[in-house]
Write a structure and sequence with these properties.
There is one protein chain. Strand 1, helix 4 and strand 2 form a beta-alpha-beta unit. Helices cover 56% and strands 7% of the residues. Strands 1-2 form a two-stranded parallel ribbon. Among the domains are: 46 residues; 52 residues. The protein contains six helices and two strands. It has 144 residues and is mainly alpha-helical. The longest helix has 30 residues.
């Protein structure tokens, strides 16, 4: 153990004798070798996940090329984002269940881009959270 000269010999002895707060049975980052079966399994799983994600993205790409409803929905979403950036309105992202988690992630991404945005849980909206929505926020969607 290398100790700087500023630390006295007494301090060095104290440091060497002090027990660790946590004991680890394995190294933090175990060495990986090319023939390690655990590393091979991890790499195979990573490649499988990446391949699955690439396939899903190709399906989404194909959907936007061929489905008029999907195209209209995508363009409507882009228009809403552009319109909210040009005015003092904010985007309201709504969801329940898994779509709520996706919506919260979208809100975090929009806020990091400087786009005014808020998440509204659909179930909570009925119990008082509609106060977060202002008239200017809904002006893009007169049916709301």
């Amino acid at each position: 153990m290398t100790i700087s000269p500023a630390i006295s010999a007494l301090d060095e002895a104290t440091i060497q004798q002090r027990p660790c707060k946590r004991r680890r049975s394995l190294p933090v980052t175990p060495p990986v070798t090319a023939d390690d079966p655990e590393a091979t399994a991890l790499l195979e799983r990573a490649v499988h996940v990446l391949t699955t994600e690439a396939t899903a993205l190709s399906f989404v790409s194909r959907l936007y090329q061929t489905d008029p409803t999907a195209r209209a929905g995508f363009l409507s979403a882009v228009d809403a984002i552009v319109a909210s950036c040009g005015t003092r309105s904010k985007l309201i992202i709504c969801g329940v269940g898994k779509s709520a988690y996706v919506g919260m992630k979208i809100v975090a991404t929009m806020k990091s881009l400087g786009i005014s945005c808020s998440f509204l849980h659909a179930g909570e909206a009925l119990h008082g959270d509609l106060g977060d929505v202002k008239t200017v926020d809904c002006s893009r969607f007169p049916s709301l």
